[in-house]
Write a structure and sequence with these properties.
The chain is α+β, with helices and mostly antiparallel strands. It is built from 4 helices and 10 strands, in the order ββαβββββαβααββ. A hairpin with a 2-residue loop joins β4 and β5.
Length: 170
């Protein structure tokens, strides 16, 4: 089983543009996550599609795994941070999504904000602990699974798949 980070998109009533969100799900392959992603989607069901997806096996100096059993008592936690900011040549808000391992949200926020120096008027849109804020720990516990973080000296570059992949249902 793997933790997947998924960039989903679709429409919502009265929206003039396509809406997007980053969601998390667990499965052996991305296809195993479709039903869960459909259940998480708040927009028009038939419009749901994936734009990008990646199994999260490494983040910020740690291997990331989902395993059977109870969650270990760990000081370090996995945080998903969605940063927003502006540049003078782009109409609208730009976003950067970061996974960081830190002992608390304040430390994760400080580290994330240091990474957006090229933006004008950067700000933090959302900061949340993946396991708690998106109920990932509860979902994993209900399945008898836990998120494990293990320090590693081997850095693994973040890689992801992308493309329009419709998964919506009428």
């Amino acid at each position: 089983m793997q933790l997947f980070m998924v960039y989903v998109g679709g429409s919502f009533a009265n929206s003039n543009t396509e809406l997007h969100d980053v969601r998390f799900s667990v499965g052996a392959a991305i296809e195993d996550c479709y039903d869960d992603l459909r259940a998480q989607w708040w927009g028009t069901p038939a419009s749901l599609h994936l734009d990008a997806w990646a199994p999260i096996a490494y983040a910020d100096g740690y291997t990331v795994s989902v395993e059977p059993g109870a969650a270990p008592g760990m000081v370090e936690k996995l945080f998903f941070i969605n940063l927003g900011g502006y540049t003078p040549d782009e109409f609208g808000e730009l976003h950067r999504n970061i996974l960081l391992v830190a002992p608390d949200a304040a430390t994760a926020k400080q580290r994330a904000l240091a990474q957006i120096t090229p933006w004008s008027e950067p700000h933090r849109d959302q900061l949340f602990e993946v396991e708690h804020s998106v109920d990932l720990s509860a979902a994993l516990a209900a399945q008898g699974l836990a998120l494990h973080l293990r320090p590693t000296q081997t850095e693994t570059p973040f890689s992801f798949d992308f493309g329009y992949r419709p998964i919506g249902r009428d």
